[in-house]
Design brief:
alpha+beta; Arc Repressor Mutant, subunit A; 9-stranded mixed β-sheet
Length: 484
């Protein structure tokens, strides 16, 4: 048993899914030419006045409602002073005393047990710009400033320090990402910087109530990286304590390639930011009707959808968990199921094909399921052809390869390539008799009690039929013939 307890709190920044920035009309589109999405407001020209984006407020309130937050009806903003080169005006518009959402919660599952993590707040703020230190493979001896990201709306979610392990933090972020993607309030793409995480880590002797010295790990851009960074930092802090050293409150960076954290600077406190009310954005109240309308827009969330998949479609917990872990996959599954003429028979087989054959192809080509060459309707057709005996599972895999490569209809592929399953009993009897005659050794072994020897004869039948013989009928006929 460890003599230290890990204490983790998370600060998660998620880019709000709006077409324009939070205080101006500039586009939020990712990947455009540097400084092409800027104006006098987001580039901080003197005298420019911010105008609040209503959609950004809606997104945060909707997220708060899904996470059981209290919604603060009065909306106020503050200036948080920064002296960093990526913040052109040297302050950030944010919320301080009255965030839009207070006191929420999210339930995670660890080792089969549920644990509720309390969340302090979700507030609205604007993003900073981006410093570019290298171009391609060439490192620069100076930095370039891109303001395309400056002024994009963020919702910052801050947890209570209730996470007790790297795995709990990992599960929390996965669950949060999934819920927010279901809501559509953020795309949460960590690769594009649309979800970033600051991690506060400390340790304390088991049984001690007071928190230890907190270290912040800044700007984590992958969920697995968060888990790895916490694991490393906990061990580093233990080594400091065990060697008689003293921890200092600081901000550190995670070096993923090296697998270590490195000191960046001493940690700022709230006083260092010199908050004061934002004079260009007056306080205002959110009407009850505004909140009620957003409450009606909260969709079925992952846990509820998983429970419904198990109940209505008789899926295993594993299958339901896989299908609902990403909204787009769950949507694809239900679209495919709704196109089926025999839903009851299709549910399990359809889930298997999505989680195995389709998933493997999509992962290999790094393709999102919404851009899958195999449409949900065509996958349903393939499943129906398996269920009605038109093709075998083995032939279905050959057909699927063609479907994925050419986005083709399975019925068209089967017709063009002559892949229809042979289910005519007289035809299969003839092929089975040939296979028995040509494989006397396997016949003798089967009759001596080695029942597995039938596999060699089945294989020969399938070879002679080019894989088109109905395997169930082949096995039935062979057993009948061999036991005569």
């Amino acid at each position: 048993m460890s003599k230290y307890e890990t204490v983790v709190g998370l600060e998660v920044h998620m880019q709000i899914n709006t077409k324009s920035k939070v205080f101006c009309e500039c586009s939020t589109q990712f990947g455009l030419e540097p400084n092409s999405n800027t104006c006098v407001i987001c580039s901080s020209q003197p005298g420019a006045i911010p105008i609040l984006n209503k959609k950004a407020v809606e997104a945060i309130v909707k997220t708060g409602l899904a996470l059981n937050f209290d919604i603060n009806k009065q909306c106020t903003f503050a200036r948080k002073q920064y002296f960093y080169p990526d913040v052109a005006k040297n302050y950030q518009i944010t919320q301080l005393d009255m965030p839009l959402c207070s006191r929420g919660k999210l339930t995670i599952t660890i080792d089969g047990k549920e644990k509720v993590i309390n969340i302090t707040r979700i507030h609205l703020e604007e993003d900073a710009g981006k410093l570019v230190h290298e171009i391609g493979s060439r490192k620069l001896d100076y930095s370039l400033l891109d303001l395309n990201r400056a002024g994009i709306g963020l919702m910052e979610l801050v947890t209570e320090p209730e996470l007790r392990s790297p795995d709990e933090a990992f599960e929390f972020l996965n669950e949060l990402q999934n819920i927010v993607e279901y809501l559509g309030t953020s795309e949460c793409s960590m690769e594009e910087g649309k979800m970033r995480c600051d991690v506060n880590v400390s340790i304390r002797p088991v049984g001690q109530r007071e928190f230890g010295t907190r270290v912040e790990i800044k700007n984590m851009n992958s969920i697995s990286g968060v888990r790895d960074a916490i694991a490393y930092e906990v061990e580093r802090q233990k080594e400091v304590f065990n060697s008689g050293g003293k921890l200092v409150q600081e901000t550190r960076l995670w070096e993923a390639k090296e697998g270590i954290t490195k000191s960046m600077r001493s940690k700022e406190g709230a006083l260092d930011y010199r908050y004061f009310p934002e004079p260009d954005l007056v306080p205002f109240d959110l009407p009850d009707s505004f909140i009620e309308d957003l409450h009606k827009q909260v969709p079925e969330l992952p846990k509820a959808r998983k429970a419904r998949f198990i109940k209505d479609y008789n899926l295993s917990e594993y299958d339901a968990d896989y299908l609902t872990s990403v909204k787009m996959v769950a949507d694809y599954y239900e679209e495919a199921l709704n196109a089926s003429k025999d839903k009851k028979s299709s549910t399990k087989l359809l889930a298997n094909w999505i989680s195995t054959e389709l998933s493997a192809k999509l992962n290999a080509s790094k393709t999102c399921i919404t851009k899958s060459p195999v449409s949900s309707q065509n996958l349903t057709k393939l499943i129906s052809l398996i269920l009605d005996g038109t093709i075998s599972g083995k032939i279905a895999k050959i057909v699927f390869e063609e479907m994925y490569e050419k986005s083709s209809d399975p019925q068209k592929i089967i017709k063009e390539k002559g892949l229809t399953q042979i289910s005519d009993e007289s035809t299969i009897i003839k092929i089975c008799q040939e296979a028995i005659f040509e494989n006397p050794k396997a016949v003798a072994e089967f009759k001596s009690g080695k029942e597995r020897a039938i596999g060699a004869i089945v294989g020969l039948v399938m070879k002679k039929s080019k894989g088109q013989a109905n395997p169930q009928l082949v096995n039935k006929i062979l057993i009948e013939k061999l036991k005569d």
